[in-house]
Write a structure and sequence with these properties.
The structure holds two protein chains of two kinds. Chain A has 32 helices and eight strands. Chain A is mainly alpha-helical. In chain A, strand 1 and strand 2 form a beta hairpin. In chain B, 58% of the residues are buried. In chain B, strands 1, 4, 5, 6, 7, 8, 11, 12 and 15 form a nine-stranded mixed β-sheet that branches. In chain B, strands 2-3 form a two-stranded antiparallel sheet. The chains are: A mainly alpha, B alpha/beta. At the A-B interface, helix 1, helix 2, helix 23, helix 26 and helix 29 of A face helix 1, helix 2, helix 9 and helix 10 of B.
Chain lengths: 829, 478
Amino acid sequence: MSSSSPLRTPLAAHLSILFSCAVLVAGLGTFSTSPGPEGAEQRVSFNRDVRPLLADRCFHCHGPDEHDRKGKLRLDRADGPEGAYRVRGGKPAIKPGSLEASAVWYRLTTDDEDDAMPPAGSHKESLTTEQRDIIRRWILQGAEYEDHWAFVAPARPADVKVANPRWSSQPIDRFVMWRLEASHLSPSARAGKRALIRRLSLDLTGLPPTLGEIRAFLASDNPADYERLVDRLLAKPQYGEHMAKYWLDLVRFADTNGIHHDHFRDMTPYRDWVTRSWNANLPYDQFVTDQLAGDLHPDPTEDQLTASGFNRLHMIIDRGTALPAESFARNVIDRVTAVGTAFMGLTVQCAVCHDHKHDPLKQADFYRLFAFFNNLDARPETGGRGGADFKRGLQPPYISFPTARQSTTLEELRAKVSARGSQVKRLKSGLGKAPDGEPKRELAKKLKEAQEDLKTLKRKQVEIQGSIRAAMVMKERAEVRPAYVLIRGDYQTPGERVERGTPSFLPPMKQKGDTKTRMGFAEWLVSREHPLTARVAVNRFWQQLFGVGLVKTAENFGAQGEWPTHPDLLDHLAVSFVESGWDVKALIKQIVMSATYQQSSAARPEIFEKDPENRLMARGSRFRMDSEMIRDQILATSGLLNSTMYGKSVKPPQPPGIWKAVTLPSSYPRTYSPDHGDKIYRRSVYTFWKRGMPPPQMSILNAPTRESCIARRERTNTPLQALLLMNETEYLKAARHLAASTLVDARSEKDRLNLIYETITSRVPDPVESKALLELVREMEAMYGRNPALAEQLCEGIKLRDGQSGSELAAWTMLVSTVYNLDITKTRE
Amino acid sequence: MHRSFDEYNRLQSRRQFLKTSGVGLGATALASLLSRNDAPLHGTDHPPRAKRVIFLFMAGAPSQIDLFDYKPNLEKLFKKPLPKSISQGQRVTAMTNGKTQLVMPSMFKFHRQGQNGVHWSELLPHLSALADDVCVIKSLNINAINHDPAKTFFCTGAEIPGKASMGAWLSYGLGSMNRDLPDFVVLTSAYWTGGTRNVQGLYSRLWGSGFLPSRHQGAAFQAAGDPVLFLSNPKGVDADVRRRMLDTVRKVNRKHHAEIGDPEIETTISQQEMAFRMQSSVPELTDLSAEPKNIMAMYGPEVEKTGSFARNCLLARRMVERDVRFIQIFHRGWDHHSILPKQLRGQCFDVDQPAAALIMDLKQRGLLDDTLIVFAGEFGRTVYGQGKLKRDDYGRDHHPRCFAGWLAGGGIKGGISYGETDDFSYNIAKDPVHVRDLHATILHQLGIDHERLTFPFQGLDHRLTGVEPARVVRGILV
């Protein structure tokens, strides 16, 4: 937003408008609004107040899409022959300053059914009285149009004046405070140290703090401790894994192709690259560039090539089903859609078949983008079942990374194969010449041995070759493939030819050589002038740390997306992010160092009622953790977590048979064969992800299928989630593991309970909690004592120590499981 | 108005819904409603004719030419090329592309059944006997020519993944009618008389909630093990232990709620209680021990096998009795590119008797009137053959331009056939019914105007029937 934006003028007035609308719609009736000057009409902002109304009710027929435009009128802009100020039949659609002269005002307010807008058949609701009032004031105030806020490059916002400057001097906090004061709210107290270390650890690494970490943090009262903790957590390798989890949703990373047979494919080197990049704090602009066009660097590194695998993450069909031309179009559309969602927060896919209904994106614009991504030097479908690639889950082009050992072994094998090969040849010819008798039999025996050995060697060779990791990458064909507008999105009906290019409502793209390239596109995306890239990125990081973004529709910054709750704050973050050299860790640090972030999340019920999603941030956010974090927390706190990083996906146990309904007899793999050993305790980011049936431990808790790009997960609370946490056998085994580890010495009941409770929740139980939980243990012990067979079932596979009873372990296992099922355990507070 | 708040109001929480709708409730009643998640977000637009739907999805695409669309004149055209005037250079699959298209008549006999003499194939004797309860549609059509996009379209109204499925829309729009079971249950056959040669994959997106809140997604019952994932207590935990443990969980959660103030904790408590109730309601649902022998026998011998289509039909009836809103049974294995006669026989054996039993069983309980049964695959099959091209051994390729299915109950006219195709069952000659028309009709029978049941996502008001025009097929309604 430019600093001249009308937003800056009496802000209280804006807020009151915003919230009076919100209140009317949501029925909240709660945010107190600050009064404007008595009697004065509050200033309406086109972008914030008017555009959403027009977009919802009018743009379908009077918007950017020429094809569906009625009455030669578009209300998304003022000027031009069809713009809102145009005069028709002597009357302008909108006449600034005059309701009577504005045809639109008549249409919106008339009772005449023939004239009323939106028309009866459109299923669009008429404007409410309050909404009409917004339009009324807007027209009277001059019907000023503004460019859509998100399409104007962010500028560093001016500081705001707050009544209570003592809370914090940090920019983030001042913007938040400014808004709180306007709503007559005040921030909450700082959260306790236990809550803070738990919050920070979960947010930055996806794992709860260990007891040692908690104790160390509590032990000192140095004000610098918090910052040290932040630095320490950002430096942990688990930070990169946790950040990768969010990124993998965004780019639809998975371990299968997603269509038809839904065969295995291996993109895991890309995942490793993402994790390493977060950990190395690769500047975000490079992070984006390498993914879009890493292959087009002059002398690309293996990392840059691996990163370009971003362009290969789309779903892909297997050979022999759909017509290749159709699959080709689908793949490219999917690729472009991903770029739109992940980097620009735009729903470009809306323009596949027609001009975008709400944003100024022409259908041809979509295909100009298409032209950057239609030149992959590969078939549009997976390879056949034959050959080593199929089982390795690879489709060319790819690059291989043999380890030193694999290279040496292969080298040795090659030599051996060659030697054995010549020996076989020699023996064969010798055998032919040899006379019958003992020597000949001897020779034959030798030949057979040599042949068998050769076979074994060759098998080994294939085996090793198959185990070499390889990354699918992007590779441009030598020639540029022409691109056409696909009429109605149909690959069979190409229309006008289009050249590579970017939408005209965004800053122009510089061209270096003869043709525009993907690299040029990537550079355009991360250029300072681009209004979307930085905003969209910082908003997602904010969402990760507060549960909801400053723009809630993290995937859509277009006209139908949500207006930011704190536009200045968003721009402050975006600008400082770019100025810092796209330094992600610095940005995250800036956010978590704010007083806003450090507030306590406990509040009076009416505060939750008033602002359930905590959009104004008068308290710390509180939200249910993602599936991966919930599982990883169970593994970490029970002591089972295997913190090995990187590599191929692993298969922790799933309920048997759940792939049955979704695989074909010829799908590879057809059945889910769980791994064994400590592989099954790896972090969830490494769990094998089949698009046709994602791991239920993840999907039940709202993890997406990874068929399309998801910028924010939904967060529901369902009985199936309750069943998962209660009954998942691996989770119960983890509970038993933790229980058993607390029963090793002669601790008191109370100490055991404290240890368990603190390990899992980072809190110490108070007397009420202790009493309830200890009562449970005692009763459980009695119940299992009466039913030793049941206790035995629970302890199956565990060797009890001398003198230990099964009922004791069973009872404590249920205690641990109880703590795992508490709301505070699955919630980041 | 601001999208966020609008959306919020509709999705986020029952609390706001109740407030805006002016329902004044005490905290306790509110808490119990919060957990119920049952207030409809849309409600009906007109009086419904049906309350529930059973969708028998024949995944793989059964041959309409061999089952419903009788074309006696093809007999004399055996292995003659399909006239260009008929095929009109239409899009074909990669399997047929560039090959000659030779006409392959059906080897099966057809008989006129019921008062109006509707043609039924000899492969469906049990269903034929109920001809007067069933409406056959011969003019279904869809755009997609390959299984995956066609199934995705049939189940979600769009070829591209990410949209909400039929059952999710109904759960979202109408809310639930029962306390202890999901609104939308999916059953998939795991047993085939004729083997698994043509059994293809499914995708959870076919019963997914897409952009709708995920609680509306179908609960896929498993054929083996727990019907609902993680339903059973693990080994070493019985119902008493579970109850006692949940009492403590609730007690501590309540305490935290008092301290923290977040109403979400109350929701967690009620969902844990619902989970506990499901631990008995679902086993009660799937326990067939109290079903009388004669009822079991109606569904045929396969009903004894867990995971059979017959067993799933019986389960569907039990779900209808318990007011599950939408039940979708997937029976795969209809993709007969070769050895169609033999394979089709096996498939029909699997579904004919159980589907007929389902109709009769619902009818005798007075439940057919307000339960709509739909039977269809994702597309049809071509008149031209594939595979061996013998009179009694042939196959057929995918054919989206016309195909057949049937409906029964729920305010649908029985004993009729709707729509006609040309002499080759290749093009529609009269009364086309696009799959989106079928969607509109299903919604209509449940009291919903398909143009009004919408959900805002990524800047569009999405609906099951999409943006292309769709119409209710009035001609098949009572």
